[in-house]
């Protein structure tokens, strides 16, 4: 709905306000007249009318409106998926900083709150709010177009779009705050967006890789928490409950993506996830192969989070002491300060080495760094 | 309808040319490229509104209050060598047009203009 409204207003702030106004109107109108047959269409039309009124008011206030409503655009029928895609590419325009692209897409395309976006990127909320405001200002002032790029420029624009979709999935996979570990709505939006991109760009291996990665996450979703909502680590999950159809679909996509050429970071992550999904048990996982894939991933995408995940694979192949050494190198770099998975992984290695007092300290450090209740419970259990 | 379309002002952008090579040392083909640029931009659906080429930065005098100094305010290797204003459909179009600027060593910077320029 926001996407359809932006197309009319060409102003993200006016569009956002209009959508909110439309919801408010709906509350009283639907109570009076009953819920319409197509509530979504009702809201979209209401939001668009409110946007047009808002723009008309602004037009009388100013001699010149910098963002004019183009008359011919009003008659174009609204194709929602296409509109969303346009909004995604606008938010991911290379003229915006990488941080702004991701923040803006999560906020505007996916409706993630500014606080959750900030938390996903380990920055204060005020920082993220300022970043999003600056990005909106640049879109309006520089006239960043609201469109899907032409086919020749599409691949170059794709990486930032895929990054955004992936981070959205990550935010949904483990919600940065709140009571539930998983925010299914966000994870679903990420998968929808990824499938949409795959339909548009069937030849792009990295898009297929991203879809595969998200499918494996989805296949395991139900087993990541127990009835009480507590986190269940991969080692203890009920593998018989994983969705084999989704995993099979992911496998096909991964194989095709791997055959297409040197694999990119999403294809490699999908391959790792698929290997985990195929293993009959945690212990029987093909850890050497997973470590090899992490080595390759680290070459194309050198980030401390990948290095941390690699340390877990190293610990499985070469023992917890080797894993601990890898984590301590990362810890010394200070790049992951504030990232609770680092002390959590360290605690696990220390525990397996029988260094329980140090493990308890590390668990406590991890606990202090997460706001997610399900993760807090898990860490508290480990602390005993 | 067409009247409506023509009354909407298209956005304007300043294109800053940063070039390490002084104007007198520019190769003839690059110089020719600069001279032919407005025509090339027009052919691609844009319009050059105004353009200025600068002498070598060493010819600059900076004025700060009563103080006169030799050289520009900001010393950089890739000096501001010229500036032009173009009209385009949107940022993507403006970037496509600005990319046609001939450069030996350096690049261009595109900045949208606010809506009250003193231009013909």
Q: What can you see in these coordinates?
A:
The complex is a heterodimer of chains A (384) and B (120). Chain A is mostly helical and 384 residues long. In chain A, 69% of the residues lie in helices and 1% in strands. Chain A has 18 helices and two strands. The model of chain A is unreliable at 61-79 (pLDDT under 50). Chain B has 120 residues and is α+β, with helices and mostly antiparallel strands. Chain B has three helices and six strands. Chain B has helices at 2-7, 28-43, 91-98; strands at residues 12-19, 47-53, 61-64, 67-70, 79-87, 106-112. Chain B has a four-stranded antiparallel sheet with strand order 2-5-1-6, with helices on one face. The radius of gyration of chain B is 16 Å and the shape is globular. Chain B starts with a helix and ends in an 8-residue tail after the last strand. The interface between A and B is medium-sized, with 15 and 16 residues. Chain B: Residues 28-116 form the YCII-related domain. Chain B: Belongs to the YciI family. Chain B: This is YciI family protein. Chain B: InterPro entries: Dimeric_a/b-barrel, YCII.
């Amino acid at each position: 709905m926001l996407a359809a409204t932006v197309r009319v207003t060409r102003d993200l702030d006016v569009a956002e306000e209009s959508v909110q106004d439309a919801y408010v109107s709906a509350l009283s109108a639907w109570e009076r007249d009953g819920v319409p047959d197509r509530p979504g269409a009702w809201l979209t039309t209401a939001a668009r009318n409110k946007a047009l009124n808002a723009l008309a008011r602004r037009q009388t206030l100013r001699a010149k409106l910098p963002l004019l409503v183009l008359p011919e655009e009003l008659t174009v029928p609204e194709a929602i998926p296409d509109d969303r895609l346009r909004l995604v590419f606008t938010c991911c325009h290379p003229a915006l900083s990488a941080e702004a692209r991701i923040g803006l897409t999560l906020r505007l395309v996916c409706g993630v709150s500014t606080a959750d976006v900030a938390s996903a990127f380990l920055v204060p909320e005020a920082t993220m709010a300022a970043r999003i405001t600056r990005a909106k200002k640049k879109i309006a002032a520089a006239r960043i177009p609201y469109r899907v790029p032409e086919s020749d420029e599409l691949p170059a624009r794709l990486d930032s779009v895929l990054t955004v979709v992936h981070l959205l999935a990550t935010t949904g996979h483990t919600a940065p705050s709140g009571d539930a570990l998983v925010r299914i709505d966000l994870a679903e939006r990420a998968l929808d967006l990824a499938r949409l991109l795959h339909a548009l760009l069937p030849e792009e291996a990295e898009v297929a890789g991203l879809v595969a990665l998200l499918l494996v996450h989805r296949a395991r979703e139900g087993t990541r928490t127990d009835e009480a909502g507590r986190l269940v680590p991969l080692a203890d999950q009920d593998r018989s409950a994983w969705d084999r159809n989704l995993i099979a679909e992911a496998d096909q996509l991964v194989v095709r993506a791997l055959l297409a050429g040197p694999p990119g970071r999403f294809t490699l992550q999908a391959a790792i996830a698929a290997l985990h999904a195929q293993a009959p048990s945690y212990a029987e996982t093909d850890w050497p192969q997973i470590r090899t894939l992490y080595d390759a991933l680290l070459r194309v995408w050198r980030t401390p989070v990948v290095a941390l995940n690699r340390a877990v694979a190293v610990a499985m192949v070469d023992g917890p002491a080797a894993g601990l050494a890898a984590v301590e190198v990362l810890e010394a770099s200070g790049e992951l300060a504030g990232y609770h998975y680092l002390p959590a992984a360290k605690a696990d290695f220390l525990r397996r080495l029988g260094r329980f007092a140090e493990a308890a300290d590390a668990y406590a450090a991890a606990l202090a760094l997460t706001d997610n209740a399900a993760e807090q419970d898990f860490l508290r259990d480990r602390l005993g | 309808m067409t009247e409506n379309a023509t009354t909407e002002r298209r956005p304007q952008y300043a294109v800053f040319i940063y070039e390490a090579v002084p104007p007198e040392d520019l190769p003839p083909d690059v110089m020719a490229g600069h001279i032919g640029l407005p025509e090339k931009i027009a052919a691609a659906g844009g319009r050059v509104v105004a353009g200025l080429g600068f002498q070598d930065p060493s010819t600059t005098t900076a004025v700060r209050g009563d103080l006169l100094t030799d050289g520009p305010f900001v010393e950089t290797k890739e000096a501001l060598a010229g500036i032009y204003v173009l009209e385009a459909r949107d940022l993507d179009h403006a970037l496509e047009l600005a990319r046609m600027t001939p450069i030996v060593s350096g690049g261009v910077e595109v900045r949208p203009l606010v809506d009250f320029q003193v231009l013909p």
